[in-house]
Amino acid sequence: MKKKLIASLFSLALSAVFALGCFAAGADKVVYDGTNLTYSGSTQMSGFTQMIPGKTYTGTITLENTGNKAAYFYMDTSVVSTLIGASNAKDTGYTVSLTCGGNTLYGYDPATGKATGTLVGGDTTTGLEELNKQLEEYPLVATLDPGQTADVVLSITPDATATNVSYMGAEGKIEFRFQAADVPDVKTVVTTETVQGAPNVVTQVRTIVVSAQTGDFNIIAVCAVVVVLAAIVLLVLTKKKKKEEASDAQNK
Amino acid sequence: MKKRVLLMGLAAVMVMGAVVGGSLAAGQASAENPVTAPLAAATLNIEWTGGESDPVALTVTDKALMPADKINVKDGYKVDNTGSVDSYIRVTVTKYWADADGKTTDLDAANIELGLNSADWIKAEKLFEGNSGETEVYYYKYPVPAGQSTSELLEIIGIPASLTNEYAGMNVHLEAVADGVQFAGADAADLNASGILASWGVVAQLDASGNLVSVTE
Fold this sequence. Notes:
The structure holds two protein chains of two kinds. Chain A is α+β, with helices and mostly antiparallel strands. Chain A folds into two domains: about 30-180; about 190-250, no CATH class. Chain A has one helix at about 220-250; strands spanning about 1-5, 30, 35-40, 55-65, 70-80, 95-100, 105, 120, 140-145, 150-160, 170-180, 190, 205. In chain A, β6 (about 95-100) and β7 form a beta hairpin. In chain B, about 15% of the residues lie in helices and about 30% in strands. In chain B, β13 and β14 (about 210-215) form a beta hairpin. By secondary structure, chain B is α+β, with helices and mostly antiparallel strands. Chain B is rod-shaped, with a radius of gyration of 34 Å. Chain B contains two helices and 14 strands. Chain B has a domain at about 45-185. Chains A and B meet through β1, β2, β3, β10 and β11 of A and α1, β1, β2, β3 and β12 of B.
């Protein structure tokens, strides 16, 4: 008998991508204690090895607040490299979803109301790296009370037809960076002022509002408002004083 | 005096507002290093067990191979899964008669009867068009885990009792090609069937474990 060399094929599913049972990775933890942000366990998210076309793979990171106050968690997702196939091929597609504590950060399907995933990449693109253009930097992903946790889950499905034999053994990488901060207290300040010897109650209510819904750490604008208010009051009082002095001078 | 105190207080508020606003960045905590998620695609690769072997011709003579003979096969096509992903495997065997010089003849290939290991392999229910009698396709029933092998495909080679004298001195030649399709897991029946259809052009019936039950061309 004569034997010929074997041909190997990295085959594909012909029809639409199927969302299947997933490989769920063990959860690594990002822990905020009110002062520092550290990791518990590995800093490597597993679950995306031996990927084959059409099959869904997931990885999980757990956020945990061990501090004494409620805390905001912010996360930046960056695709360092998509899967790169033979001849530097990148342009396959991926169905991607990113959720945190049940909230969909990316990949929401309004038709189903679920995080079924959004197609990223495809022909003439840079594959998974296209995601970098769609995700904002450091969005607020969770607000956790003391002791509370939330799972960040990334799901990737390589396209069943475009991920061909040239992608066999291909490698890529995604990075997640984190920031956290205590949720500021909401304060109400009441002041009383007597003017010109007669009881004259002036009530000022100042509410410190943090614009953290957009994940913006910059609340310098809030402080600027406080400074401006104080400046206005200072101006008013100064003018009154000058008026009084002028009135006194006239009376004399 | 009271107004002076109030004015000083307001000035202090202004200063503090600027100082606190400027120092807010210090209240944020950042992790020093990122969490990384490495991505890696699987590798599908299969090889003949033991590598290529020298061709063996079975000659029809009154001493080696006679009509109605059935010869037990040694090294009857065994395939190793040397990739990183479990795989379905099939072997396509082309059979033909050749003369003493190795030249292919037009003698009927259907007179070469292949007895397969039917416990582990199934035969396609229909031959490819244009190759009737010459080409037979066999599918290993079970997804082969990475690092493991199939069982041997062929057990017997036989020739019918009705073989005529024109076959005298002719040799039975077999040539085989093997290929694979990745196995996505027992819970991915639709994906497995679609992959087999896309790569091999056949409709596969799978059981709950992902094993091939039947294959239809």
